[in-house]
Structures are given as structure tokens and as C-alpha cells.
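Chain A, query sequence.
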Amino acid sequence: MTAGRGAEAPFEVLTIGRVSVDLYPADSGVPLAEVRSFHRFLGGGPTNVAVAAARYGRRTAVVTKVGAEGFGPYVHAALSSFGVDDRWVGTHPELLTPIVFCELYPPDRFPLIFYREPKAPDLDIVLDDVDLDAVREAGVFWTTGTGLCEEPSRSTTLAALEARGRRAHTVHDLDWRPMFWSSEDEARRWQLEALNRATVAVGNRDEVALVVGEGHPEHQARRLLDLGLETAFLKLGPAGTLAACAETVVHVEPVRVEVVNGLGAGDAFGGAVCHGLLAGWELSRIARFANAAGAIVATRLACAGAMPTEAEVLELLQRTEDRAHAG
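Chain A, predicted structure.
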């Protein structure tokens, strides 16, 4: 416990970085030029991860920033409704809360348009916005690649990781969005800086290839572990999930579902990884659980609001096992 927070228990999951208000079309297969109505949802990778972990009963918080316009209070209210502590959600007096539009072309095309100009307030997080004692004490501390793409967020993220001191469950989500970076070389440089301060890496094939090169997923995972990481999770899309630590490599087959919106599935995966790490599950159990959590969100339209409960994930895993035995 820290003097500043008295006897308050540490957060089980503390994330830092991107937040957004997502506006998704009411209908699939319709280009933006023809969309007549949208649904509004809370979004942003680390924000979604905090919500996902809260669904499992974890005590969570997010460090981010919103604008002073009407979407800022919406973010605060949405976080509170999901059970995520919003004490470190700051307000920038001039920058606007980011907006994200998407188009829905299931099963595998969901183009995004980010409104984060001239700068997103979540990239203006400074070290004074971060409670480093809370960072050190959190059961899981979660950072993202997007948080490294611009100053002062980059220096703040790295300083928080440095203060964490590579304690167990220091997770870096590669979260590589090329449109936020000046070059792949620049992204690779700072992603490696973060990974050198983390214990767990999470990323998809493209994100992992950016930092350790192309190759078989198992070889990529080994290269990540060679950076000093304890665990690596590779999201392989229709090929499932690969997870690796020094002693074990696990490949989990995909859960077959009818995809509505693939956006947010990776964040559901991340929240489930947090839950499994905190529970002390073996690697294969974490990978299966996270794989199923992502599959559930892919069947739903929203991101944050679509995050499943543990009971829902376990039910899907049981149905999948029953089908496999029946087949």
C-alpha cells in the first residue's frame, strides 16, 4: 500500500493509452457514404482491455485523456457503468475526444477511419498524470504500441514501464497502427524499447513481424522470448492462437463463429489474458480462454460493451468441446 492511497487495495489491472468513441454503422455491408445511422460505443484498445477485465470481476482502472466537449463526460460515464475506475482519465482543455468510424464487411474486412487530429488527448499523457505507485503495485500493468507513437505519451509510457521494474505481468500489447507512425523503423525502435521493459507480449502476426521479423509463429514467439520476455501470445486470426514461455509452446485452434464485427476481439483476448495471468492458470488454459473470449466479441457489434463474462466464455468452450467430441 502507498501512503497516498492509504489502505486502498492495488488495482488488479491498470492500463494506459488510447480511448475513443466508436461510431459503427447500424447495417453491415454499407459504405460510409450511404450509412444513415450509427451506434455509439466506448472504444480504444487499453480502455477495452480494462473493461474486459472488469467483466471478470477484476478491479481495473485506465490512464487516459479525453476532451472537454460532450464526449468526455460520456467516456467517464461509460467507464463507470462498466466498473472501471476513471480517476486517472484526465481532460485536455483544447484537444477533442477521438472518434472512430468503421465500415462492416464481415467476416474479415472492417476498415477504420480515426479522427485524432491535430492530436489525440491520450497522446498528451505526461508523467504527472500517472500514479507510479499504482503502476508498481498493479497485478497487471498494460501498455500499448500506439502509446509510443508520439510524445509526450511515448516518454510517459516508457517511464512508467521503467518504474514498474519488469515486475510479473507487465504486458506490452504491440497494437501497431501504421497510420499513427512516420515509418516502420521508428515503430520497431520504440516497440523494442517497451518490450525490453515488459514480461509479456501480445500481438498479431503483422505486429510481431514488425519487431522480430517474418517466420513461423513458433519461431517468432521464440524471438520475442529472446528479448527477455517471460511469455508471448500471438493472435493468428483464423489460425487460432499460439502462446509460448520458456518451457511450453501451445497452439490453440480457432473457435468457429459467425463474425459480425472483428473489431474488439483482440481487446477481449487481452482482457482474458489479464484474468488468466492473475488467476495463475497454466498457459494452455489462458490461451484457450482468451481465444474463446475474442470469438464471442467477434459475434457482436460493440467493442467495450460486447466483452463477455467468465460464464459466457466457459459456456462457449464447453459447446466447442462437445462439438469436437460429437464430430
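The chain has one domain: 9-326. The two ends are 52 Å apart (CA to CA).
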